[in-house]
Input
Amino acid sequence: MILSDIQTSKHKSGSVNIKLSVTKLLLSVMLIIWIIGFLQPIIWFNSNQLINFSIERIYSRVCHQQDNKCISLAGTKMLICARCAGIYFGALVSLFFMFFRSTPKLKLGIFVLSAIPLLLDVFVTNLKLYEYSKPIAFSTGLIFGSVVCLFLLSEIENLFLNKSINRNE
Output
C-alpha cells in the first residue's frame, strides 16, 4: 500500500512538473514574440507602412510611446518606453532562471514591495522633482517585471498542485 502511494505521488508530481515546464516554455515563447514585436523597428527595417502602423497600434494599447521615454538605438526607437521594456525583459529573465530552479513561493507583500520603486519613480517624475531617466525607469520596470513573473509562476504552480491534490482526494 505504501509503495503504491509513493509511486502515485511521484507520478502526480511528475505530471505537475511537466505541466509547469510546458507552461514556462509557452510563456517564454509568447514573451519572446512580444519582445521581438516591440524591437521590430530596431531589428529590421520594414518598408510596408500598413504593417508598421499595425504593429505600432498594437503596442500603443499597452504603452504611451512618448518619444522622449523610448529607448532608441542608432536613431530608431522601440515601440514602448524604457519602463515597459524593463517590465517585459524582467519577466523574460525570471522565466529563464525558473527553467533551472523551482519557483519560489512569493507572498502578495513581495509583489507590492516590488511596485514601490516603480510607483515612486512615476510619482516623483510626474511631480517634476527630477527629469525622467530611462535607466531608472528601465531598472524599476525590470524589478517589477521579474517579481510579477515569479508571482504569477508561483500562483500557476499552486493551481497545478491544488488540482493534483484534489484529484487524489
User: Anything to note?
Assistant: Helices lie at 2-43, 49-60, 82-98, 108-126, 134-168. The mean pLDDT is 85. The first strand starts at residue 70 and ends at 73.
